[in-house]
Predict the structure of Calcium:proton antiporter.
Amino acid sequence: MESHHISEELQKNILISLVFTIVYAGLLAVYENVPISQASDFLIVLFIVCSLVLSTSAIYFAGKSYQKTKMSSVVLIIINSIGLLLPLIILLLLI
């Protein structure tokens, strides 16, 4: 019988990536509730920087564990890659 044991380090990487993804979803929820009249340039820049940092770090930690945990890593990488598109779209709309 095959052993499907995943090391503790790989589990921590997936968990850290999942936490960054959840924090990014929370950031999106908070940003969506801010009225447009109160959204200053500082808040928009802060949102873009935070979303880029959170998505990139989530992709990094998911990529570190890709070798052994392919399915969960691929799902997290795809979700966070789509999340990276949002700040790019906002930047394009601001120009």
Q: What stands out?
A: The chain has a mean pLDDT of 84. The helical segments are 8-32, 41-64, 70-94.
